[in-house]
């Protein structure tokens, strides 16, 4: 039985004066409230105009409203909704406030005016019971026009997953706090700095980057007289001194992958203080007229060394930028060198074992970057697994299965992961059907594959790219935001469309490019079955050639990335019979 009430009235002093005396709880009870300027005609959202919304909690809602009336940033708001429940306490209200902020940011119809430092994930008595009430609150607010999408639609969206309004894990919070302390100390002493955030797939590197960027712009724009909640996370940085250190700061956010870059820009368009122009390529940084105070680089392992680029224009630009920055076309310079030359402070988020192409930064450069950060106490590891519900052991297990990287050694013992659907299919059609069923149930379920088939449909849209046992499939028809595209359920995504993204269920096709030698008891690469030209070409500029061992590292890393996309489950189909037999020892059959 619903115990809460939602009262709606105008955002005006007159309306609050009438409302406040009606119930003692309006002035002396923990409540949550929503302020917005939503227009009657929500169709204007489609024209790119967003409503503003602010969510708060208070023990004296009437007094808190008067504080909002004095805020210049909220003068345009028009509606108040107050959520009252006789059983609510402070902990419940903080949790509901955080829940509504996260959901409103993911809905996509609003600019959320809140700071992100108050988002909590604290446990308390009967939390699970209260969270059922939260969903009822959501439904009632949706029926009143506050939300425009369902809970599953919101939770499966990039706007939700890449939103800065996140509750951080303990190690993410420790990393953000450590970054801020070091960064502000370096600003105060006018010392250049390089910070490294290191974590395996699913530890939330991109979440930390976006959260941190939003936090910095909020601190920089803090109004000195603004009321603060001293209990909020990172409140100590919203005091005198820190804002002044950030005055006029020029920040850029470098995202090497095209698809992820465009998704993040969508989030920034809907977030006050963040601008899609902040989201850049390394080439954008190199050509920028001004230098940056701070550059945050996501997926830093995908920065390029000097190599043959995807286009002649980019090859020319690589040379032009290097000459511009260093006075000569020094082919030893990488995009990492561009970043450090164009900024006083850098934050690199990386995983050495996610390099997937020869043009990516070599492992030795990345490891040196980590080593320097550790020596200067500017290294922040992320350990908690945020994506895969199988837990942190799953990533290491996958890497050991494929023999990749530093976690690829040691005895391999078959494991099961309770609550996680990890299975191998011997029938590609059956796996495809299961992915479709899961997409119908929970959404965001897709087929993925290594680049073991030519991209025929790039020039012939009527053709098929992948044919296995009578099942014909096509590669992704777009590189940008493929996962959310209308055709994605009927297509197969490559590494370049999914690195950095989450799925609920991933069906991974391991193609004939990765095989198993039962005599040597090791995986090996079939060079002729690997069709990413940029993924195996030699580097003529640097005089580097890539043998089969080098190529095996890239291909194995690709499959390790693909096999760690699924939140709820991962399905596997293997083309090579010997590799299939080997993996059957360690992955349960469907």
Structural overview:
This is DUF2075 domain-containing protein. It comes from Cryobacterium gelidum. With 590 residues, this protein is an alpha/beta fold. It folds into 3 domains: 5-155, no CATH class; 170-382, Rossmann fold (3-Layer(aba) Sandwich), CATH 3.40.50; 392-589, Rossmann fold, CATH 3.40.50. 36% of the residues lie in helices and 18% in strands. The protein is built from 20 helices and 21 strands. The strands form 4 sheets. An 8-stranded mixed sheet has the order 14-15-16-13-17-20-12-21. Strands 8-7-9-10-6-11 form a 6-stranded parallel sheet, with helices on both faces. β7 (251-254), α10 and β8 form a beta-alpha-beta unit. α1 (13-19) packs antiparallel against α2 and α3 (90-107) crosses α4. The chain is globular and about 80 Å long.
Poorly predicted ranges: 40-48
Rg calculated over all Cα atoms: 25 Å
Numbering strands along the chain, what is their spatial order in the largest sheet? 14-15-16-13-17-20-12-21
Write down the overall geometry. globular
Q: Structural class, from helix and strand content?
A: alpha/beta
Number of helices: 20
| Helix content percent band | 25-40%
Overall pLDDT: 92
Total of domains:
3
Protein name: DUF2075 domain-containing protein
Domain GIY-YIG: 28-115
InterPro entries: GIY-YIG_endonuc, P-loop_NTPase, SLFN_3-like_DNA/RNA_helicase
Features:
alpha/beta, 590 residues, Rossmann fold, P-loop_NTPase, 36% helix
SSE layout and pairings?
Layout: E1 5-10, H1 13-19, E2 31-36, E3 51-58, H2 61-69, E4 79-84, H3 90-107, E5 110-112, H4 127-143, H5 151-155, H6 158-161, H7 170-189, E6 193-199, H8 205-220, H9 242-245, E7 251-254, H10 258-269, E8 279-280, H11 282-287, E9 292-297, H12 312-326, H13 335-341, E10 343-350, H14 363-375, E11 379-382, H15 392-402, E12 421-425, H16 428-442, E13 445-449, E14 466-468, E15 471-475, E16 491-493, H17 495-498, E17 503-510, E18 514-517, E19 522-525, H18 533-536, H19 548-562, E20 566-574, H20 577-584, E21 588-589
Parallel strand pairs: 3-5, 6-10, 6-11, 7-8, 7-9, 9-10, 12-20, 12-21, 13-16, 13-17, 15-16, 17-20
Antiparallel strand pairs: 1-4, 2-3, 2-4, 14-15, 18-19
Helix pairs in contact: 1-2, 3-4, 15-19
């Amino acid at each position: 039985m619903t115990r809460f009430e939602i009262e709606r009235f105008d955002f005006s002093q007159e309306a609050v004066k009438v409302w406040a005396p009606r119930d003692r709880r309006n002035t002396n009870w923990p409540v949550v409230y929503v302020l917005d300027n939503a227009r009657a005609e929500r169709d204007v959202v489609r024209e790119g105009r967003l409503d503003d919304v602010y969510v708060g909690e208070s023990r004296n809602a009437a007094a808190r409203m008067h504080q909002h009336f004095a805020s210049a940033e909220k003068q345009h708001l028009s509606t108040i909704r107050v959520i009252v429940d006789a059983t609510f306490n402070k902990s419940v209200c903080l949790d509901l406030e955080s829940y509504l902020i996260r959901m409103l940011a993911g809905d996509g119809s609003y600019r959320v005016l809140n700071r992100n430092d108050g988002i909590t994930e604290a446990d308390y008595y009967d939390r699970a019971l209260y969270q059922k009430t939260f969903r009822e609150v959501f439904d009632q607010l949706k029926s009143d026009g506050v939300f425009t999408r369902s809970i599953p639609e919101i939770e499966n969206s990039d706007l939700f997953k890449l939103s800065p309004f996140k509750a951080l894990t303990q190690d993410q919070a420790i990393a953000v706090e450590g970054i801020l302390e070091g960064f502000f100390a370096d600003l105060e002493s006018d010392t250049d700095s390089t910070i490294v955030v290191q974590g395996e797939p699913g530890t939330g590197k991109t979440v930390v980057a976006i959260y941190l960027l939003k936090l910095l712009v909020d601190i920089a724009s803090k109004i000195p007289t603004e009321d603060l909640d001293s209990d909020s996370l990172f409140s100590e940085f919203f005091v005198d001194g820190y804002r002044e250190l950030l005055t006029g700061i020029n920040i850029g956010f470098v995202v090497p992958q095209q698809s992820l870059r465009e998704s993040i820009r969508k989030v920034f368009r809907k977030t006050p203080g963040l601008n899609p122009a902040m989201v850049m390529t390394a080439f954008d940084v190199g050509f920028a007229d001004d230098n940056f105070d701070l550059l945050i680089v996501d997926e830093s392992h995908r920065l390029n060394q000097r190599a043959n680029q995807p286009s002649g224009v980019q090859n020319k630009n690589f040379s032009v930028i290097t000459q511009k920055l260093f006075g000569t076309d020094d082919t030893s310079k990488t995009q990492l060198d561009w970043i450090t030359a164009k900024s006083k402070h850098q934050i690199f988020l990386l995983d050495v074992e996610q390099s997937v192409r020869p043009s990516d930064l070599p492992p030795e450069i990345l490891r040196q970057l980590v080593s320097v950060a550790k020596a200067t106490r500017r290294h922040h590891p992320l350990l908690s697994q945020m994506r895969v519900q199988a837990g942190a052991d799953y990533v290491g297990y996958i890497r050991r299965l494929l023999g990749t990287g530093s976690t690829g050694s040691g005895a391999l013992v078959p494991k099961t992961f309770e609550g996680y659907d990890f299975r191998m299919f011997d029938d590609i059609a059956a796996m495809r059907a299961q992915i479709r069923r899961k997409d119908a149930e929970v959404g965001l379920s897709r087929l993925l594959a290594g680049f073991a088939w030519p991209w025929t449909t790039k020039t012939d849209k009527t053709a098929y790219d992948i044919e296995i046992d009578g099942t014909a499939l096509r590669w992704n028809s777009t590189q940008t935001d493929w996962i959310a595209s209308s055709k994605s359920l009927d297509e197969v995504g490559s590494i370049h469309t999914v690195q950095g993204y989450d799925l609920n269920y991933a069906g991974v096709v391991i193609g004939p490019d990765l095989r198993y030698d039962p005599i040597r008891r090791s995986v090996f690469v079939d060079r002729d079955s690997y069709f990413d030209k940029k993924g195996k070409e030699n580097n003529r500029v640097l005089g580097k050639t890539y043998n089969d061992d080098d190529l095996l590292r890239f291909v194995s890393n690709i499959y390790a990335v693909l096999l760690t996309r699924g939140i709820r489950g991962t399905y596997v189909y293997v083309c090579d019979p010997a590799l299939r037999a080997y993996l059957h020892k360690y992955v349960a059959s469907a």
